[in-house]
Amino acid sequence: MSDDHTHPGLQHDVPLPGRAKRAVAIHRLLVSKSIVGPDEVRETIDRAGRRTPADGARVVARAWTDPAFKTRLMDDPRSAVFELGYRLSRDAGLAVVENTDRVHHLVVCTLCSCYPTAMLGQPPDWYKSFAYRQRAVVEPRAVMREFGLHLDEDVAVRVVDSTADLRYLVLPRRPNGSEGMPEAELAELVTRDSMIGVGQARNPA
Ligand code: FE
Questions:
Q1: Which residue of 74, 105, 168, 182 has the fewest CB atoms within a 10 Å radius of its CB?
Q2: Tens of pLDDT along 83-113?
Q3: Distances (CA, A) of 122 to 41, 105, 145, 153
Q4: Where are the beta strands (DSSP E) in the chain?
Q5: pLDDT value, residue 19
Q6: Dist. CA 113 → ligand 1 center (Å)
Q7: Low-confidence ranges of the chain (pLDDT < 50)
Q8: What is the tens place of the pLDDT at every residue in 55-81?
Q9: 132 in Cβ contact with 108 (< 8 Å)
Q10: 200 CA to middle of ligand 1, Å?
């Protein structure tokens, strides 16, 4: 890198692989054309890096305990999660799909790895794998069984395909026996996998 456009933290003494060079070039173009501000990308990465599945679990637990919040979450996820302090980037929409005893949603990005990072942090490696992306749509029940999730045949399975514009978050079923539990304890039952749809929320111990 020999021009005056610097990237803090970039190792100039290590040759960049092709894809990294392309990413740097695209970033440089976006900044030079004022499509993104110089700090915007870093702030977005930093924000996503602070997120973990515990953040999505907070949202789920609130929806389980507050029916009015749940209605708002289903109708307008962006505004609802903002109530809990989560700001979604302006171009990445969020849709919340609810699992019930009749229908089960499974999330995939068949094209690449689109994922609700603003709610869950970075996706697990398997989510990005070609095998998952392909098999989730072809044989979702078999994939879920491999994750240990055995659904009754009368539960309908809907596979939802995330895109860069619209990412999906599953609202898992509230487990039996969790009645009366405080919101913070309920959040402990909400696993990352249950918010992707390859698992259910944990049963109370
Ligand atoms: Fe993607």
A1: 182
A2: 999 988 877 899 999 999 999 999 999 999 9
A3: 15, 20, 23, 32
A4: 93-98, 103-108, 156-161, 166-171
A5: 85
A6: 4
A7: 1-3
A8: 999 999 999 999 999 999 999 999 999
A9: yes
A10: 23
The answer to whether residues 80 and 119 touch, using CB atoms and an 8 Å cutoff, is: no
Looking at residue 3, what DSSP letter applies? S
CB-based burial, 92-122: b 16+ in 10 Å, e otherwise? bbbebbebeeeebbbbbbeeebbbbbbbbbe
User: Nearest to residue 166, comparing CAs of 128, 129, 86, 111?
Assistant: 111
Cβ burial 20-48 (10 Å sphere, 16+ → b, else e) = eeeeeeebeeebeeeeeeeeeeeeeeeeb
Strands 156-161 and 166-171: unpaired
Residue percentage of the chain with pLDDT more than 90: 76
Do residues 41 and 27 make contact, with C-beta atoms less than 8 angstroms apart? yes
CA 66 / ligand 1 centre spacing (Å): 32
Amino acid residing at 141: R
Amino acid letter, 71: T
CA of 30 to the centre of ligand 1 (A): 20
Quote the ligand 1 centre to 13 CA distance (angstroms): 31
What residues contact residue 186 under an 8 Å CB cut-off, 6+ apart? 60, 61, 64, 65, 174, 178
Q: Which residues are within 5 Å of ligand 1 (an ion), measured at CB?
A: 109, 111-114
